[in-house]
From TrEMBL:
Organism name: Vreelandella maris
InterPro entries, A to Z: Glyco_trans_2-like, Nucleotide-diphossugar_trans, Trfase_2_rSAM/seldom_assoc
Keyword Glycosyltransferase: yes
UniProt superkingdom: Bacteria
Protein name in the entry: TIGR04283 family arsenosugar biosynthesis glycosyltransferase
Main subcellular location: membrane
Record key words, sorted: Cell membrane, Glycosyltransferase, Membrane, Transferase
Coiled-coil segments on the chain, per record: none
GO CC aspect terms: plasma membrane
Subcellular location: Cell membrane
Amino acid sequence: MPTPREGRLLNSAEKPPRLSIVVPVLNEALTLAQHLTALQSLRAQGVEVLVVDGESGDDSIRVAKPLADRVLSSPPGRGVQMNVGAQHASASTLLFLHADTQLPEGAVEQITHAMKPHAIKTHAWGRFDIQLSGRSGWLPVVSWMMNKRSRLTGIATGDQGIFMSARTFKAVGGFPEQPLMEDIELSKRLKRVSPPACLTAKVISSGRRWDQYGAWKTIRLMWRLRYRYWRGVSATQLAKEYRNAR
């Protein structure tokens, strides 16, 4: 059973945090300090940051300890790691943030507003638009395609900063603990509860995957994998194909 490596627990005199941010990590020591440092102003405003390490072979845990409220250990796999983080979160609203993704200004307030009951439409979950950063000149096009596709389908990717109420997360069974497409499967479950709140503010996420393997090669690969997943191919098989293609 995964156990906390470091952190604090609320006592009866403390208010619960406004938001719990769960950050899954695997060998991110080189850039982790930069991304967690960007969350420190939110911690000062009552936001809880939980880092979940998936058996990193580098110094990710050491880097994270002074910059998070809790550092937890988990078997590797984003779905598994994010479920562990959610189990230990204290807030009523959860945000799942990849280690290479930065939040926009006013993100907490926008999430809070999106999750409030509205007269016309109520959202139990949502995501941000995305802006990929990197060297490739195709990244703005890829970002636009990701945002457009997400709005049309109601499906979000983990890079977009998926958020929801803790109650909704529990009701849908959390992330499926599968090696690929866990964000797609979770979105399908969440769509049965409500449509997503599609926030136009943009998270900035690393485009290193497109830079390293080539923009169009990566686009073709991801669309092929998504299509095959839609056709019923198992996530385990697709994960093997993804690793081989890389």
